[in-house]
Design a protein that fits this description.
Low-confidence stretches: 1-21, 276-282, 378-382, 658-663, 704-712
Structural class: alpha+beta
Helix content: 25-40%
Strand content: 15-25%
Largest sheet: 6 strands, antiparallel
Number of strands: 28
Radius of gyration: 52 Å
Shape: elongated
């Protein structure tokens, strides 16, 4: 049949080398003859040569015209067909696919035998282009149009179309499927289109059969009497059948793989028993677990899981295969047995205590959900991991001893405190209980585990807090007593200096006594700072400005080896603190950092805002959620050894050599920070440096008032007077000095050793007292109580409180709105006289 098909102008361009060489030779001879004739005519006389030239040119023109006609109708061909042209044609003619080659205008250039059979062509006139073959169906026509568009864009395209009947002319039968491919082809400067058409009806019928079988299998699985699900190692559910979806109240039409997790459908920590555990073996086992599912309406559904975790060749866990059996009422034949079993399983899995059974070799058997969650990696029944593998190496001997005691039937086994292996600072307390010999199978003990991490942290925190509180009370008491002693030393030194001229030999000795007393007073102030009993004068501060002003002083303190960098945050909130005390905090931290960098380094001061939501990211358990301004002081020094980190804020603790520090620097910092209402923490790493972080609460102004300008008080030149003063002081040395000092300034002084005695003097004097100067801490009747009694008869009486503690420490015990003056101990003669003069002047 194909012999009758028309093969027009498409030829495979192959020319034999021998034929090509012979043709060129004959052409060269013919050209030489014409050249010789032209040369011969050139030597003839013009009258003779001219007709001959015309005759030669006419002959050449006739030969050229006949050659063109012969070449056009095929009588003359240039070159011959090579054997490979016949091979290609034979291969194409035997293709199973139909092949049609057309030009860009749609004219047929070639069609193989399969294409002719496909379209039912018996002669070359019956061969139709693809567009005409598939024009009888709208969907097929649209597909052909898309192919044509692709060809115009010089692209290859494929379409599959369904025809209501075969495309062969006159053929009968049912619907047929065809695959049509169109590809542009370039042959020299000419462009063609290769159409490949094949009948894929049988292939489609096989696909339909497989699809129907798959649909049946899914239908069988969906309507099975048991639930089924598959979940990834991270707990994401990738499949669940219709039965399980119906139990849970989930609409499968809206379920997408991975949109639901095990933790959403399994109550409590039960999902930990179903997740594939890290470090599992490559051996696949099935575990039986009784748990509760959570329906969409919040109700519980008791079920039994038959859970299998397959492992890949590399040991990584794959998606689980889990069968879910309904254990609800009416789903079991033996109702009583089922109810008892379900109750026990639910009790076992949902108790807050982690429970596991241990066999003779120390391997873990059954575990509940709390056990899987607590130890951070799931060990389902059958994995047979040793219990000691769950704890850190130092804790294993004690746990092994407890298991041996259980194996021996010992009744009272002390609990074992351990650290979880690989769990950082997580603490677990194990309670090991021996199993009765009658009830033993392969199990020797039941182990109960309790997470004590938070409890241990609270114990450590409480112990540290108690220690700091006790040290603070001790420091405050010592500071109070020292202040009394120092007040007497400084006061009597002032009295001696008033009676000695600078030229006297004793004058310099008395000055040394006073200077060292003042130095001791500075140490006492540091103790008061640690015990949070110093007087603060808080004000609103812009921390960036404070650090900028302080940087010049810090550069001098740090020296040339240490570089200072100040990094300011953007729009840092204001804080409220005592300016002088806060500067002291930064200076103390900077000096400590300098000493930690003997070979030089860098000190960095940073400020930034920390919102309440970001506080937890720092991991400081004692830091409540609040808006803070964070001040960081970071050095690149030697770091703080771990064994002394818990002691660095204690008074008089120092790692420096004798005579190079008092050990009060960081304790002062701690006291000032805590009294300000702020928090201080630090992180340190040996040979890398230390960073101190101070979290100061953000200050929000309640009212926008213009700051009050308080004029500076002019120094009083005349400190004498003639008023009646009641001096109340239980410390005899201080009372003696103060009485002499005031008497030397012209005042009439009445002395009282206690509050009770002061009330008696007030009654005896009959209201002649103009001013009361009283200590705060006294036996029988303290200063605030004395003030309340005096106000009953003298509501306008002026009073000066004298104390070694801060003003705030006792002001809260006074009636609201009470006015008084305050003079901190230790004080000098001049300070006492000035305070009295100012109080009387008010």
């Amino acid at each position: 049949m194909n012999d009758k098909l028309r093969d027009t102008s498409l030829e495979w361009p192959a020319i034999d080398r021998g034929e090509r060489t012979g043709g060129i030779g004959r052409l060269a001879i013919l050209a030489a003859i014409f050249v010789a004739a032209a040369l011969g005519l050139a030597f003839l006389p013009e009258p003779i040569a001219e007709p001959a030239v015309y005759a030669l040119l006419g002959l050449l023109a006739v030969i050229g015209v006949f050659a063109l006609f012969a070449l056009a109708i095929g009588l003359i061909k240039i070159g011959g067909k090579a054997p490979r042209d016949e091979l290609a044609r034979g291969f194409i003619d035997t293709m199973a696919e139909g092949l049609l080659i057309t030009d860009r205008e749609g004219r047929i250039l070639y069609a193989n035998r399969s294409y002719a059979d496909l379209v039912g062509a018996e002669a070359e006139r019956d061969v139709r282009v693809v567009e005409r073959v598939f024009s009888g169906d709208q969907a097929a026509s649209e597909a052909i149009y898309r192919l044509s568009q692709a060809i115009r864009a010089e692209n290859t395209a494929t379409e599959e179309v369904r025809m209501p009947q075969p495309v062969a002319a006159g053929a009968r039968g049912g619907p047929r499927w065809y695959r049509i491919r169109a590809r542009p082809v370039k042959a020299g400067e000419r462009s063609f289109v290769a159409w490949r058409v094949s009948d894929i009806t049988e292939e489609r019928e096989q696909q339909e059969t497989v699809f129907q079988d798959l649909q049946h299998a899914i239908d069988y699985l969906d309507h099975a009497p048991a639930g089924f699900l598959s979940a990834e190692p991270d707990g994401r559910i990738v499949y669940l059948n219709a039965t399980l979806a119906e139990w849970l109240g989930i609409d499968l039409a809206f379920f997408k793989p991975g949109s639901l997790s095990l933790s959403e459908i399994v109550r409590g920590d039960g999902a930990a028993l179903l997740a594939s555990g890290a470090g599992g073996s490559a051996e696949t086992r099935t575990a039986i677990v009784d748990l509760d599912l959570v329906k969409r309406n919040g109700q519980s559904l008791p079920v039994r899981f038959l859970n299998k975790v397959p492992y890949r060749s590399d040991g990584a866990p794959g998606a689980t295969r889990t069968i879910v059996l309904n254990r609800g009422p009416g789903e079991d034949v033996s109702e009583a047995l089922r109810a008892a079993e379900v109750r026990f399983a639910r009790f076992f899995n949902y108790t807050p205590f982690a429970i596991a059974s241990v066999d003779k070799s120390g391997r873990v058997g059954r575990t509940n959900a709390a056990f899987a969650r607590l130890l951070g990696q799931t060990r389902l029944e059958g994995t047979r991991a040793r219990l000691t593998e769950f704890v850190a190496e130092p804790s294993r001997p004690a746990l092994e001893a407890a298991l041996e005691a259980a194996a021996g039937g010992q009744g009272e086994i002390p609990p074992v405190d351990t650290l979880v292996a690989g769990g950082g600072e997580r603490n677990v307390r194990f309670y090991v209980s021996a199993v009765d010999e009658e009830a033993r199978d392969d199990e020797i003990a039941t182990v109960y585990a309790l997470d004590t991490t938070e409890q241990r942290a609270l114990e450590i925190q409480f112990a540290q807090s108690q220690k700091m509180q006790a040290v603070g009370q001790l420091a405050g008491g010592v500071a109070h007593d020292f202040n009394n002693v120092l007040t007497a030393i400084i006061g009597f030194s002032d009295l001696l200096l008033a009676n000695h001229r600078p030229s006297d030999p004793s004058f310099q000795d008395i000055m040394n006594i006073k200077q060292n007393a003042n130095r001791a007073a500075g140490l006492v102030r540091q103790l008061l700072a640690f015990s949070r009993r110093q007087t603060l004068r808080p004000q609103t501060l812009a921390i960036g400005d404070v650090l900028s002003d302080l940087s010049i002083l810090l550069e001098r303190l740090l020296g040339e080896k240490v570089k200072l960098a100040v990094v300011h945050g953007r729009d840092v909130w204001p804080i409220k603190a005592d300016l002088n005390q806060f500067e002291q905090v930064v200076i103390n931290l900077a000096v400590n950092a300098r000493d930690a960098m003997p070979k030089g380094g860098q000190l960095t001061l940073r400020t930034k805002n920390i919102e309440a939501e970001a506080v937890a990211a720092y991991g400081y358990k004692d830091l409540p959620a609040h808006d803070y301004v964070l001040i960081e002081v970071q050095d690149t020094g030697t770091g703080i050894p771990p064994e002394i980190q818990s002691k660095i804020f204690e008074p008089f603790f120092s790692t420096k050599e004798v005579g190079k520090g008092t050990g009060l620097g960081l304790s002062t910092v701690y006291g000032i920070v805590r009294q300000t209402g702020a928090h201080i923490f630090f992180d340190s790493e040996i040979d890398k440096g230390t960073i101190f972080r101070i979290f100061v609460p953000r200050h929000v102004e309640t009212e926008t008032k213009a700051p009050e300008i308080v004029p500076e008080k002019a120094e009083l030149a005349d400190l004498t007077g003639s008023a009646n003063i009641l001096l109340v002081e239980d410390e005899e040395a201080v009372r003696a000095f103060a009485a002499r000092a005031l008497a030397s300034r012209g005042y009439k002084v009445h002395e009282a050793a206690s509050g009770t005695e002061a009330l008696e003097i007030m009654e005896q004097t009959g209201g002649l007292i103009d001013l009361v100067v009283s200590d705060v801490v006294m036996p029988e009747l303290d200063g605030p109580s004395l003030l309340r009694e005096l106000r009953k008869t003298r509501p306008n009486l002026k009073i000066i409180f004298v104390s070694g503690y801060a003003e705030d420490a006792f002001a809260k015990n006074l009636p609201e709105g009470e006015t008084f003056n305050f003079l901190p101990k230790p004080f000098s003669l001049k300070q006492l006289a000035t305070a009295v003069k100012e109080a009387l002047g008010e």
